[in-house]
Structures are given as structure tokens and as C-alpha cells.
């Protein structure tokens, strides 16, 4: 079964726009750097329904094993570690 790894991102107050752009670029770059990713979609929230979360990420992977490989991939670890310094995040994974 395929897996959708969803991440909600809320950048902390005071994080400069340039730094946010760097984070978003790093997230986008994972598509080319992590072989287990089948699809990657990233965008800015445009409604008031996300409790302050400003961006969403959706990563489609083949199965749970691919999710585990993605989570442990050094490029993903580096991007996620940097992101957590400037944002709070929520993640949810589901099979379909």
C-alpha cells in the first residue's frame, strides 16, 4: 500500500522570509535527492482553518518500508533538523 506522509509547518515569529524560502527550497530538493519519494507537493496554506500552520508538505512513498528509508535518509534528516529549529511541525502518515 502507498503511504502519504503529510507535514504541517508553522514558522516561528521572527524567522526572516529569506530563511523560510531556504527551508522551502530544501524541502523541494528532497524529491531529487531521496530515491524513495514518488511524489512531493509543497504549498502555502490559504485558509484560516489550519490553526496557524502556514505550509503543508505531502510526500508519497511506495510503502511503509519506503517511509522508514525516507525518514532515515541523511538528506531528509538534515532538512528536518534545520526546519525544527525555525518551525513547529506536525506529521501524519497514512496508507491508501
Summarize this structure as a short list of keywords or feature phrases.
96 residues; alpha+beta; Alpha-Beta Plaits; four-stranded antiparallel β-sheet; 3 helices; 4 strands; 34% strand; globular
If you had to describe this structure to a student in words, what would you say it looks like?
The protein is of the alpha+beta class. The protein has a domain at 1-62: 2-Layer Sandwich (Alpha-Beta Plaits). It is 41% helix and 34% strand. It has 3 helices and 4 strands; from the N terminus they run βαββααβ. A 4-stranded antiparallel sheet has the order 2-3-1-4. The longest helix is centred in the first third of the chain and has 17 residues, at 17-33. The chain is globular. The termini are close together. The model has no long low-confidence stretch (mean pLDDT 98).
Concise account of the structure shown:
With 96 residues, the chain is an alpha+beta fold. It contains three helices and four strands, in the order βαββααβ. The chain is 41% helix and 34% strand.
**Span of the ends, CA to CA:** 6 Å
Give, in order, the helices and strands: EHEEHHE
Mean of pLDDT: 98
Shape: globular
Strand sequence of the main sheet, in spatial order? 2-3-1-4
Number of strands: 4
Helix share, percent: 40-55%
Identify low-pLDDT runs.
none
DSSP summary: helix tally? 3
Mind telling me the CATH class of the domain at 1-62?
A: Alpha Beta
Amino acid at each position: 500500500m502507498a503511504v502519504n506522509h503529510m507535514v504541517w509547518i508553522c514558522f516561528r515569529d521572527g524567522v526572516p522570509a529569506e530563511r523560510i524560502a531556504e527551508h522551502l527550497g530544501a524541502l523541494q530538493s528532497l524529491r531529487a535527492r531521496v530515491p524513495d519519494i514518488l511524489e512531493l507537493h509543497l504549498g502555502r496554506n490559504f485558509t484560516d482553518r489550519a490553526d496557524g500552520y502556514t505550509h503543508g508538505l505531502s510526500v508519497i512513498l511506495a510503502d511503509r518500508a519506503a517511509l522508514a528509508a525516507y525518514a532515515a535518509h541523511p538528506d531528509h534528516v538534515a532538512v528536518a533538523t534545520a526546519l525544527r529549529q525555525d518551525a513547529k511541525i506536525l506529521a501524519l502518515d497514512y496508507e491508501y
